[in-house]
Amino acid sequence: MPSRAMTDLPTPQQMLRLSAVAAVVTIVMKTAAWYVTSSVGLLSDAMESFVNLAGAAFALAMVTIAMRPADADHPFGHSKAEYFSSGFEGMLIFAAAAGIVWAAVQRLIAPQPLEQIGWGLALSIASSAVNGAVAWALFRSAEAHRSMALEADARHLRTDVWTSVGVVVGVALVALTGWLWLDPLVAIAVAINILWEGGRLMWRSSQGLMDEALEPEVQAQIEKTLAEFAYRRGNVDVIRFDHVATRRSGHRRFVDLHMHMPAEWTLGRAAALRASVEQALMSAVPGLRATIQLLPSDVEAHFGDERDLL
Which CATH homologous superfamily contains domain 216-309? Predict the structure, then answer.
């Protein structure tokens, strides 16, 4: 059940709608900046904002799917849909980078003077302020909701902010030096920068789809919680845990493990202890789903046997 603090926060859908609105606003501002200056650097910045809009719209669709409850066809829920959002945004970034490079090469071949640079830079700086504020809000929400889609959108917007800073500096240098070739070079640098971020987003998406383990700090919290229940008498482990495996699926977290206890214990006693361990794990790690297999102390499960891979 979500905490009161969690319910007071905007939902992931609300944050992505805010991101989409911000993208529309920055598209208008950056396109106007390109129109009045004829700067291909500012054009590249505007093209990235179109990617922001498409990414936010797709992320909104995927987050909506991810929030659906488990059903007969998807007994573990739909939370992995968020990773498709991150991968899709990464692909859009690659497409935008290709368009930016193409436009920059054309401008290198046929340089053009820039016009009304002051207005163009002012619009670009204002749009960066909008993106920076939305990115900050998205990062906070992504951490609270453990949402890969929100984090991906926030990272892209943060990259867009630094991109705009680079473009502003480049265009200002063109105005000061008169070196027209700086403008397309800045655009190419923008393309390289967003390619790097697009690659990171696609990599993180692939790792999530491959059931990546939980973060080291979360695993440490799980181990600490289990240690509170482990019990050793002399040289004998009365209660012990092993084969602890974790994975993350969107905003949900999972841990599977074996709990060993004396064979003479009744099923009711063993089940009561398991319930206590599960409750402690879920309290220590919000959103965790624990699956615990009960085994007698003198029994070892063939977990990870090479034959399981055949």
Answer: Cation efflux protein, cytoplasmic domain (3.30.70.1350)
Angle at 103 between CA 98 and CA 107, to 5 degrees: 145
Three-state DSSP state, 296: strand
CA nearest to 103, candidates 50, 158, 45: 45
Question: pTM higher than 0.85, yes or no?
Answer: no
Question: For residue 51, which of 5, 16, 88 has the smallest C-alpha distance?
Answer: 88
Q: What are phi and psi of 98, to 5 degrees?
A: -60, -45
Distance from the Cα of residue 282 to its chain's centroid: 23
Q: Are 259 and 294 in contact (CB under 8 A)?
A: yes
In eight-state DSSP terms, residue 11 is: P
CA distance 308 to 4: 44
| CATH topology agreement for domains 4-209 and 216-309 | no
For residue 216, what pLDDT is reported?
87
Residues in the chain, overall count: 310
pLDDT-above-70 percentage for the chain: 90
Candidate ranges 51-60, 124-133, 176-185, 202-211; pick with highest mean pLDDT:
124-133
Provide the residue ranges of all domains of the chain, joining segments of one domain with +. 4-209, 216-309
Tokens for 146?
């453990």
CB 147 within 8 A of CB 202: no
Averaged pLDDT of the chain: 80
Angle at 63 between CA 21 and CA 3, to 5 degrees: 100
The arrangement of secondary structure in 4-209, i.e. its CATH architecture, is Up-down Bundle (1.20)
Task: Determine the average pLDDT of the residues in 10-25.
Answer: 87
Model confidence at 309, pLDDT cuts 50, 70, 90, reads: very low
Is the distance from CB of 58 to CB of 88 less than 8 angstroms? Answer: yes
**Which of these, 65, 55, 46, lies nearest to 20 by C-alpha position?**
55
